[in-house]
């Protein structure tokens, strides 16, 4: 079953672009990544999906139900972590969490306690005394305490230290194993690569690709790095399929897609000291998509 179905969702802010004809589907049990640089439209898509703002046109369905008409009902089963968390500064963490839990029609106290421990939160503190990272942790507990079927995270890791990020990812994987579907937006591609099964790439308000992470990696460029005995001319590897040639001293690198034999023959004609052929990281694949569309 599709947990999220987005069909031609468009949101304009007056004359300003928000998102345009965004469509993608997320299946039950997926961890789905949503990548794009700042301002690409990730938060607008997520806020529209959650009916926090209304679409200019297009529709979204969550759990098979229209996201606007059934918003209150749908929200019972969603855990949402916004990119920026705003709270009542004067409240104690524990009071805020209890208040959040009171919106759900089930007892959240056990899960809340468990999450507080995992996130290592001092719940007796006032919100105003917390660091940015600790505020984010409060947001995480708040978003997960009702064991939602769908978890929507908008740039969730900003402000978290690496150890806490790891704990958080473990927590997400555990929830996913128990059946939760996850939508995870980020501009940090390595974390998407680490966690997600599929990914939608958004650029200037439009979806440019929806791919499996594995397909993205397999069907794309190979990354060549060659250390040569002498400095190569920048044009030496200028041939069909070669992109992003960079010559730094004796080291030459480029991305290649095509019949690898052509490159290997050219390499055989030079005096090389070392050679690496690697899968490009998502960042490079991502650049490729962006350039193809430009
Ligand atoms: N309330 C608003 N009024 C006018 N324009 C807006 C508003 N909110 C967003 N935008 C514009 O819509 C576009 C998409 O913004 P959005 O915040 O969705 O991007 P994003 O991918 O989430 O980026 P970021 O990571 O920076 O939040 C941007 O051009 C932004 O300037």
TrEMBL record:
The keyword ATP-binding is assigned to this record: yes
SMART domains: AAA (SM00382)
Ranges of residues in domain ABC transporter: 4-229
Pfam family, one: ABC_tran
Keywords: ATP-binding, Nucleotide-binding, Transport
Gene3D superfamilies: P-loop containing nucleotide triphosphate hydrolases
Keyword Transport: yes
SUPFAM superfamilies recorded: P-loop containing nucleoside triphosphate hydrolases
A GO term for molecular function: ATP binding
Family: Belongs to the ABC transporter superfamily.
PANTHER family reported for this sequence: ABC TRANSPORTER ATP-BINDING PROTEIN, ABC TRANSPORTER ATP-BINDING PROTEIN NATA
Official protein name in the record: ABC-2 type transport system ATP-binding protein
